[in-house]
Amino acid sequence: MNKKEILLFLTLVLPVFVNVQEYGLVRSDEFESSGQFANPFKQPHYLPLNLAIGGDNGGDPDVDAFPMKYEIDYVRVYQKKRGIRSGEIWPDDKGVHINAHGGGILYRDGKYYWFGEHKSETTSSAWVGVTCYSSTDLMNWKNEGVALSVSDDPNSDIVRGSVIERPKVIYNEKTGKFVMWFHLELKGKGYSAARAGLAVSDTPTGPYTYIRSGRVNPGIYPADMTKEDREITFDQKLFDKWWTPEWYDAVNKGLFVKRDLEGGQMSRDMALFVDDDKKAYHIFSSEENLTLNIAELTDDYQDHTGKYIRVFPTGHNEAPAIFKKAGTYWMITSGCTGWAPNEARMFSAPSIWGPWTKHPNPCRGENAELTFGGQSTYILTLPGETDNKYIFMADIWRPKRPIDARYIWLPIQFGDDGIPYIEWVNEWKP
Ligand code: DGJ
Q1: Within 6 Å (CB) of ligand 1, which residues are found?
Q2: Which domains occur in the chain, in start order?
Q3: Which residue out of 118, 163, 191, 266 has the highest number of ligand 1 atoms within 8 Å of its CB and is therefore the one to mutate?
Q4: I need a labelling partner for 285 at 20 to 30 A (CA). Which of 42, 65, 328, 332 fits?
Q5: Rounded distance, CA 91 to CA 86, Å?
């Protein structure tokens, strides 16, 4: 082979092209057949591999050495460790987009466990159940599988096709059990059941055993309802025409509390909060999503004690997420616009029992009026005795293709006045 031939050989035979997936060495056929997620970037990518040939001390290569074989056994592709990039595809340890929506995080023995709704290609209903992922750094997540499975028994409350939303897990030190509460809607009944569901496990990743579901605090008036309001008898006509001044007044005074008193209060979007004294609270949208309830849980976290308050009747709050800093309770919620984003709301209180005060939208910057396209789901307090850090977690829903919903995780910052605010950050590390 002469020099000209060597050059031709290098140009035509090399570079060798290697097809790689966006997420490393996951083969596209494996990726697809996992059935979990069709990669939107699925198209060939090419890596040119070049070989330089030279002679001794910069001289020409010895032409007698050619032809020579250049064999490649394998190509290892390294990916730069990524920080948290809100709104993008978040691959798990298998390269599949994390499927844990409306989620929450449990921290236990040095590990974070992320629980969330499994969503499929075409529906938000529960076809799989509640999924769990684990991580030690909040950036690399291992798929731990299904923590709570839907049932195939048509008589089960959590039968495949029911609605299981916003699961949250807390650990009970007295019983050593992991306790999961979630919002449950019965199959084929739309959002009318409005129940709280309960499941427990001896290990963080499960499997969780489904215990029961139901409305909350049947037969019990909220602690903050006055004696006069408890005694009012409402005119049935108030249910016929909503949004009138009389109707608002009646809702404030407990129109729906009374309607649902016997069977228990409605429970939809929800959060759990464990306080410093280990008492736990269930915070949920009630009264047709018009009012938030904050309800105390029993010592084993598996029931309600009957003590609860109503927060912002007629305020239309969903998606509650809560944290506590220096003795002040902070709650971020959304308005009620289905899967579409709206402006976040923020409240604070000196005690979980209030009084709760409303603050302006905590989000700042571009798209702040739509919570950057997301809806709150959880606020994670990073472990640490002092100087805690807090992460605001939200969902960017994709109702046309629910499995493709994305996550927003942003650090909560604090102004000189101590008021929390949230700004968009393209990429960051906790
Ligand atoms: C908004 C809620 O926050 C979600 O969890 C879900 O229930 C949708 N509404 C359903 O439209």
Answers
A1: 102, 165-166, 269, 318-319, 338-339, 375
A2: 3-65 (no CATH), 90-214 (2.115.10.20)
A3: 191
A4: 328
A5: 12
